[in-house]
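hey m, so remember when u said the tokens were messed up on ur end? i reran from scratch. heres the input so u can diff it against urs
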Amino acid sequence: MHRFLSISSKSKSLKNNNPLHLRFASPISSATPNGQSCFHYVNQKSPSLGPSFVLHRFFSSGYFPNRVISSEHERNRNGLLRLKGFVGEARSFSSETDRESIEYDVVIVGAGPAGLSAAIRFKQLCQEKNADFSVCVVEKGAEVGAHIISGNVFEPRALNELLPQWKQEEAPINVPVSSDKFWLLTKDRTITLPSPFDNKGNYVISLSQLVRWMGMKAEELGVEIYPGFSASEILYDADYKVIGIGTNDMGIAKEGSKKENFQRGVALKGRITLLAEGCRGSLSQKIMKEYKLREKVQAQHQTYALGIKEVWEIDENKHKPGAVLHTLGWPLDSKTYGGSFLYHMKDRQISIGLVVALNYHNPFLNPYEEFQKLKHHPSIKPLLEGGTVLQYGARTLNEGGFQSVPYPVFPGGAIIGCSAGFLNVPKIKGTHTAMKSGMLAAEATFGVLHEGSNIEAYWDALRNSWVWEELHKARNFRPAFEYGLFPGLAISALEHYVLNGKSPITLKHGKPDHEATDVARLHSPIQYPKPDGILSFDVPTSLHRSNTNHDHDQPAHLRLRDPTIPETVNLPEYAAPESRYCPARVYEYIPDENNQPKLQINAQNCLHCKACDIKDPKQNIEWTVPEGGGGPGYSVM
């Protein structure tokens, strides 16, 4: 079903009041925690009346302030998009050779905790200073929260600053931590360790539900949120300054031809662009390389982990709301960093997951199968027995911390949240730091637009904030485990209990994750048990629970820089690791017409976890955005 947004602007700069129709991949809505739309629709025809209908969307302001719609279609010889001048007095509509362009004061890519915190804080400042600036948030998920997945034990420090009345405003944060345990697992035993996490005052939540609520708060302030749009390219002016993003074209067939429903992407141009794409954001990665943002502050490479998670509904007599458990050790070997989490949520729900550092050496290791093994441990199995899996998902996370934070400012914008990498590894938390980074970026952005200051104020504010203090204090925890599990535990205990984060030295990370993968001949294949269909499951079953969906007839968003490497390098030297590190079976080797193994990419299975973009030994896989609205459909993750 094709869906359209009809824009009728009251802006004085636009005299033509004919509506502009932009086709959307999915309903233009973010949902409340209960799944209901938080937007108002009028003059909406019943879907049963035809294949398309028009949505007339009215924002709190009633119109689009400070925005111009124009047409642009110019590229330079290097392929970088250069924008032509705005057409001030009239709209022009998209055709096969150009695309619509909408101007905002601020464009934010990603409706996650960082992006929405930035949008909310910016609009709060507009109210405080009686300033009229427009903000747009573009989100690739079909709705706000659809791509959000996290543990999550939530520290409300940043939210207390951003929306102090969140309790009275019914934020979906209502299960305080009631107990906090830390175990070291062997195959058959459990050893209790002192818990270093200090989760008093924190809450067990669903981050996807919290983000939906934040989307509602942002809209109440006048922020315009567009789910179902994938930001696929950076827009530059003639001076190589970023001036917005372009969304990808819709309706392109797998072989590259235009289908009947083809729709040109839209240019969203902003005076300031904030990238809040989450871990390993595709545009953020390009910006960091093009402007050499890591080199600018001598930051180390980022190091990552893959988190795999399920939400279960368990027997009521086993459910303990607010109970928090973290483990180290089994099922991972002593040279592989990682651990599991098990949190009791509300309504008899628990979240259980395994986090595996992606600098593991053994190419035969399969993170998904390690997670299935975990659930059969004698200390975990009884809790799950008789329960039901509600949802499954996976996502990579940043673990580089203080040493890996790049210079987050570029001409025309900034990188915020997990796109830059502010996860506090020993806390196993990054939502509060991501939110704070978005708030600081919003304050710097407001200073640029309202007071004529410099966006680099964001970098200064970040280094003077509690985010920087937290990351500096925790900086040696993750690299300590480069020496193995038990040396890592000893060093991290020294850092936490004795030095209190004030060590005179700063440890460095080891090799980048993709370089850490050993060749297959150094290891033996790992034989994983078959799933029993009760506690452990095969990938197709889990994938169904993620609500993942992509249009099959579109170009693959997972691209091989060299199509020969899978069969000439990955398979013979590394025993096809992409068939194991991917938690959605996107990559598999099947016989070709000559009965020779050839890589097949099942892009429609993709969970958008980004593990392939990180772990491929030769960095041959490039993750790019698919059509907007595709991917997982998380609701309780």
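this time it looks ok to me. Residues 1-97 have pLDDT under 50 and may be disordered. if urs says something different then somethings off w ur setup not the seq
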